[in-house]
Design brief:
Layout lengths: L1 E5 L4 E6 L11 H16 L5 E6 L10 H4 L5 H20 L4 E5 L3 E2 L1 H7 L3 E5 L5 E3 L13 H9 L1 H9 L3 E3 H7 L4 E3 L4 H9 L24 H18 L4 H13 L4 H17 L1 H18 L15 E5 L3 H12 L3 E5 L3 H20 L5 H9 L1 E4 L10 E4 L5 H12 L7 E4 L6 H4 L9 E6 L8 E6 L5 H13 L3 E6 L6 H18 L3 H10 L6 H8 L1 H15 L9 H10 L12 E2 L7 E2 L3 H4 L9 H22 L5 H12 L8 H8 L1 H15 L7 H9 L12
Parallel strand pairs: 2-3, 3-4, 4-6, 5-7, 6-9, 10-11, 10-13, 11-12, 13-14, 14-15, 16-17
Antiparallel strand pairs: 1-2, 7-8, 15-16, 18-19
Helix pairs in contact: 1-3, 3-11, 5-6, 6-10, 9-10, 10-11, 12-26, 13-14, 19-21, 19-23, 19-25, 20-25, 22-23, 25-27, 27-28
Length: 712
């Protein structure tokens, strides 16, 4: 786990090498072994200097979040932090030089160990990074990062790294002063030994007499600007929903007012507070543990060989089809991009060309690499070109007849074992599969727009979809580096169905006379990326209206109009305001300048004399989504709470601080959540009535997630 060797030259080498892990991590066992090795080198008079390195390609990935999420004892957490701080301070002040030889990436606690060394030397690798990404799981750097980094590079630059969770290349880290040297990988250990034998200074700048904080202390003009303006900017971005942001700001501010040892104690207190809070546990569970399981295809059917892909067909070269072609080609697969018109097919390929041009301009890709990707995409109008495709994905108009037609034409060409997938966002897969001669190989692959940026793919099983087909679909999603969730068939599936409740709640509020600006701001304050009216414009009010009309036609007398449907109908049929694509919806979209709410909304939808409290609006917007998610789980559309949470965050931007739609229920408390929903149902309608699943869970005091049972 931790190897220690001491050479005849008096140089000790402490090597991290966790055999049971793909990357080294900080946990109770590894830290105990590391502490033992450090203590031994400090106490051994024969040791003149110490190199800390890794036998793996990377250094240390950070803390073991599986262990962190289970921590529930405040004193134990605080003592753990203090123990780590004592160890690293001993490294700094023992009088022996420590050098970190980083063979690759060092993140979180890994970087903090390196910061406690007197010098940091990194191997020159293009993909290697350093950073403090703890904020992305609701935490702060608890191993001294909030104290050492600002003392090393100044408060402003350090806060940029920590508050934003930035990861820096080794070259950027050297420019900023975090890394001292970047050398060829094969010369890493040689460079570390050379520094140790060249009479190095075995003290840290902040322990030397006359030390001054880079950029000035907290009372200097630059620092005051950093903390006053930075605090406002951080709150504007986090909207008060992410306590780690404020904690990091406070840690740095408080720490720079005192000596480093006192600052480290403050850091330990803030870290303990965060780790015991719900937000960190929510974010660790959903954004790391459950998303990691999804990316590893934990729910993939067992016993099915991994599918090998080389050629994928995409039917429809519009925005969705073009995006699917792009991510597929970027994964190194050949793509047949088919449309009814050659110009449309070429335009679809042009979408990839435009995205690649941006990558080349930003030096993220060479011209040769761009050309290789473009060569993988073949625009065509001929279905015969689909021959040899292991999978065909249709992304044509949301019309059953059109989808049925392309299904039959494609199946006439592709092999018997090929998968046919539909990118529909609302039409039931089982119904679409009726047009297929082999429904067992028919499945839904619901991508999100824009495909190149959105990380989720919702995989929908039809009634006859085979396990082999599902496994192949999951293999493809992993190949294109997307995160899959698997759901069962229903109208709107999971993501579209639940997302729709958010935008419709905004329309209902508008119909009630709530100020449009209040609706939009409430949505953003709740943590949604865009307000419900703006989201309606982005999706297209016209498309939402068409889906509602199709659903009404399909269900007949069983159709129940959702709240706000009259608003949607008026916007489309009466006012001709169809959404952003038409330049006008709930917002106006001028050719120059920023979008703005349409002033005519107040005339069409008169304001109520009394406006609701913003907290009530936030609750309605979030709770209605959680209730509908619970219904999906109760009906068997969803098969796990983990998929529900990951899908809600990655699919439509449900606030990450909640952990997802069902983690929100756990955070509120099942009894309190059900009681609040009953109150909302009395005031606003049956859509807030909790399903039987939630009432049964409340009666038994159950939760959707039990963190104590999570296993690595």
């Amino acid at each position: 786990m931790i190897d220690l060797s001491i050479g005849d030259d008096g140089i000790a080498v402490i090597t991290w090498n966790m055999a049971d892990r793909s990357m080294n991590v900080l946990n109770a066992d590894s830290m105990a072994a590391f502490a033992e090795a450090v203590t031994k080198t400090i106490g051994d008079d024969a040791v003149k200097g110490v190199i800390i390195t890794s036998a793996k390609d990377d250094f240390i990935a950070g803390a073991d979040l599986f262990a962190m999420i289970k921590a529930d004892d405040a004193q134990a957490i605080f003592d753990m932090c203090q123990g780590f701080h004592k160890l690293t301070r001993n490294m700094e002040t023992c009088g022996k030089p420590f050098v970190a030889a980083l063979p690759g990436t060092a993140l979180g606690g890994g970087l903090e160990i390196a910061l406690a060394c007197h010098r940091r030397i990194a191997a020159d690798k293009p993909n290697a990074q350093v950073g403090q990404p703890e904020v992305q799981v609701g935490l702060l750097p608890g191993g001294g990062g909030t104290q050492r980094l600002p003392r090393m590079i100044g408060a402003r630059d350090a806060l940029q790294v920590m508050v934003r969770g930035r990861k820096l290349s080794m070259a950027s880290a050297k420019s900023s002063g975090i890394i001292d040297e970047v050398v060829p990988a094969e010369k890493l250990m040689e460079a570390a030994k050379t520094w140790l034998t060249d009479k190095p200074d075995a003290s840290q700048p902040w322990d030397r007499k006359g030390y001054k904080i880079p950029g000035g202390g907290v009372w200097g003009p630059r620092a005051m600007e950093t903390f006053v303006a930075g605090n406002a900017m951080a709150h504007a971005e986090s909207r008060g929903n992410y306590p780690a942001v404020q904690a990091i700001m406070s840690c740095v501010y408080e720490g720079l007012l005192v000596d480093i040892d006192t600052g480290l104690r403050a850091e330990a207190r803030w870290f303990t507070n965060l780790l015991l809070g719900p937000v960190a546990k929510n974010m660790m569970r959903s954004l790391f543990i459950n998303m990691g399981a999804a990316n590893k295809l934990a729910s993939r059917p067992k016993g099915v060989p991994t599918a090998q892909y080389s050629k994928i067909g995409v039917l429809g070269a519009g925005m969705m089809g073009a995006g699917i072609a792009y991510v597929t080609a970027m994964a190194g697969l050949k793509v047949v991009l088919l449309d009814t018109d050659a110009k449309l097919a070429e335009k679809g390929k042009g979408y990839t060309e435009g995205l690649l041009a941006e990558r080349v301009a930003r030096f993220r890709m060479t011209s040769d690499e761009r050309d290789k990707v473009l060569d993988l995409i073949k625009p065509t109008t001929d279905f015969a070109d689909l021959a040899g495709c292991e999978m065909v994905i249709e992304a044509v108009f949301e019309h059953r007849d059109i989808k049925a037609d392309v299904t039959k034409k494609a199946e006439a060409v592709i092999g018997e074992d090929a998968v046919f997938a539909s990118n529909t966002s609302t039409l039931p897969i089982t119904g679409l599969a009726e047009a297929s001669a082999r429904p067992e190989s028919f499945i839904g692959l619901h991508f999100f727009s824009p495909v190149d940026k959105m990380p989720l793919v919702e995989i929908i099983e039809g009634e006859k979809t085979s396990d082999e087909c599902l496994a192949k679909a999951m293999d493809y999603v992993k190949r294109i580096r997307k995160t899959p969730i698997v759901v069962n068939d229903s109208r709107g599936f999971y993501t579209s169905r639940v997302f729709g409740t958010y935008v419709r709640e905004g329309l209902a509020m508008l119909a009630e006379g709530v100020k449009p600006a209040l609706i939009e701001n409430a949505g953003k304050l709740a943590g949604m990326p865009v307000g419900p009216l703006g989201m309606s414009d982005e999706v297209s009010i016209e498309l939402m209206h068409k889906v509602a009309q199709q659903t009404k036609a399909d269900l007949g007398d069983a159709y129940i109009a959702p709240p706000g449907e009259d608003v949607m109908s008026a916007m489309v049929e009466k006012l001709g305001r169809l959404g952003r694509k038409s330049g006008k919806g709930f917002y106006d979209y001028p050719e120059t300048g920023r979008k703005r709410l349409w002033p005519g909304l107040a005339d069409e939808f008169p304001l109520a004399d009394e406006q609701p409290d913003v907290e009530d609006l936030k609750q309605r917007m979030l709770y209605v989504q959680a209730i509908e998610t619970a219904r999906c789980l109760e009906e068997g559309v969803l098969t796990s709470a983990a998929d529900a949470d990951v899908g809600s965050i990655l699919g439509w931007g449900f606030p990450p601080y909640t952990g997802g739609t069902l983690s929100l229920v756990d955070m509120v408390g099942i009894e309190d959540f059900v009681a609040a929903c009953d109150r909302l149902a009395q005031r606003h309608g049956d859509r807030f009535t909790p399903p039987k699943l939630l009432r049964d869970m409340a009666d038994k005091g159950q939760r959707f997630h039990d963190d104590s049972k999570l296993a690595a």
